[in-house]
Design a protein that fits this description.
By secondary structure, the chain is an alpha/beta fold. Helix content is about 35%, strand content about 15%. The protein has 3 domains: about 35 residues; about 220 residues, 3-Layer(aba) Sandwich (Beta-lactamase); about 140 residues, no CATH class. It has a 5-stranded antiparallel beta sheet, with helices on both faces. Pfam families: Peptidase_S13. Keywords: Carboxypeptidase, Hydrolase, Membrane, Protease, Transmembrane, Transmembrane helix. Its EC number is 3.4.16.4.
């Protein structure tokens, strides 16, 4: 509009100059002003109202990326997480930061903390001392003792001439023998034993050494009896090893042991615990962790170790190390992050953990599962079962070679139906 008005002004000035000359400039100016004032101007230009800015399409949620089997109604209240082990990328997430009852997948926390704190080669040593005419076994937490261990002790004690074999259980004196929520009936049911720091096959004895067979009500005394039988001593009981005075370390014995035997290494012990989901073994490992740190609260020590190694335990509550407690609450995110760290490329302190998981349709608590599913032989996982609680956490190798870690927790569900749904879901990862 300004350019058009300038052209009109120039035309008027030129015409006036040609007609009347310089002397009429003032009169022309008045006439030009009047003429220009009579021009009609369009309204001032205004920018048009912009169209609404396009909103970026919402990315699919991680829950949308989960296999359809993750939304099976048989799973009731269900939280889960799946991670691509090669990249560390979470590929499926269903409320993984919210805790649920984990049942025996709690043992993954115990096992991971033990590997990180103690190392895979850790062993427990049980010493025998001569105190007068007595032989006193100082129990140190080895609940995996078997006939071979007893034979080794007996060979070192041949001809001792002892009158009694006693056992000192003071190592766990500050910790309860039965945990809150445990029922003494479960001892005869084969699920637990009084927690004493020396046992034969987790309190089963020397005959039936695996499975849910009735456990002993006096597991430490059984160790003393089994050793006494081997060296021809008739009397057994509880006793103590006198501690040294002065500058010796607290609890240090006054003399050197006359016989010693070591437990299997930690990874071997963990494998027995994880594959068969043994509660006594899990609690024993938890107590070893606590004592190693100078503590008596084993669950608290376990979570502290994990937190110190960068795992988020903030939403997790554990009251035992085995998962038998119905008060435990664990997030799938924590379980999966431990497994993902174990399976990540490159060196990993937690790598030994993977070998302790039972193979689907092959061993332990998975031996009767996956017989007709694609996960058969490809899924390795820790199971978990309580009333209205089913859980599964482990690894699976897909058909295209990807390795996934996963943690599935189902609460409020019927056990057998949920178990089948979990197995189908893990098998679905096999085809991803």
């Amino acid at each position: 509009m300004d350019e058009k008005r300038a052209r009109r002004t120039a035309t008027w000035v030129t015409a006036a100059a040609a007609l009347v000359g310089v002397g009429t400039v003032a009169g022309f100016g008045i006439a030009a002003h009047e003429q220009l004032s009579a021009l009609e101007h369009a309204p001032a230009y205004a920018l048009p109202t912009p169209a609404p800015v396009l909103v970026a399409a919402t990315e699919p949620s991680l829950a949308d990326a989960c296999p359809p089997a993750a939304f099976d109604p048989r799973l009731a209240e269900f939280h889960a997480r799946v991670t691509d082990a090669a990249t560390g990328r979470v590929v499926c997430d269903v409320q993984s930061g919210a805790p649920l009852r984990p049942a025996s997948t709690t043992k993954i926390l115990t096992a991971a903390a033990a590997v990180l704190e103690l190392g895979p080669l850790d062993r427990l040593r049980t010493d025998v001392y001569r105190v007068g005419d007595d032989l006193v076994i100082r129990a140190a937490g080895d609940v995996w003792m078997d006939a071979e261990a007893l034979d080794a002790l007996a060979a070192q004690l041949a001809g001792s001439g002892a009158s009694r074999v006693l056992i000192d259980t003071s190592a766990w004196a500050a910790m309860p023998e039965l945990l809150p929520g445990w029922d003494p009936v479960d001892i005869d049911g084969g699920f637990v034993a009084p927690l004493q720091p020396a046992m034969l096959s987790g309190g089963r004895g020397l005959e039936d050494t695996v499975g849910d067979v009735p456990r002993s009500h006096t597991p430490a005394l059984d160790v003393a009896q089994a050793l006494a039988d081997r060296i021809g001593v008739s009397e057994v009981g509880y006793g103590s090893v006198p501690a040294a005075a002065g500058g010796a370390a607290a609890g240090e014995a006054v003399a050197a042991p006359v016989a010693s035997v070591e437990s299997p290494d930690l990874v071997t012990r963990l494998a027995v615990m994880m594959k068969n989901s043994d509660n006594v073994y899990a609690e024993a490992i938890g107590r070893e962790l606590a004592l190693h740190r100078g503590q008596t609260d084993a669950p608290a020590a376990t979570l502290a170790i994990l937190a110190e190694h960068g795992f988020d335990t903030s939403a997790t509550t554990v009251n035992d190390n085995s998962g038998l407690s119905e008060l435990n609450l664990v997030t799938p995110a924590l379980l999966d992050s431990i497994l993902a760290a174990a399976a990540a490329p490159g060196p990993s302190e937690l790598r030994p953990l993977l070998a302790t998981l039972p193979v689907a349709a092959g061993e332990g608590t998975l031996i009767q599962r996956y017989g007709d599913l694609p996960g058969r032989g490809w899924v390795r996982a820790k199971t978990g079962t309580l009333d209205e609680t089913s859980a599964l956490a482990g690894t699976v190798t897909s058909e295209n070679g990807n390795v996934y870690t996963f943690a599935f927790l189902s609460n409020g569900s019927e056990i057998l139906a949920a178990r089948r749904a979990l197995d189908e879901l893990a098998s679905a990862l096999r085809t991803m």
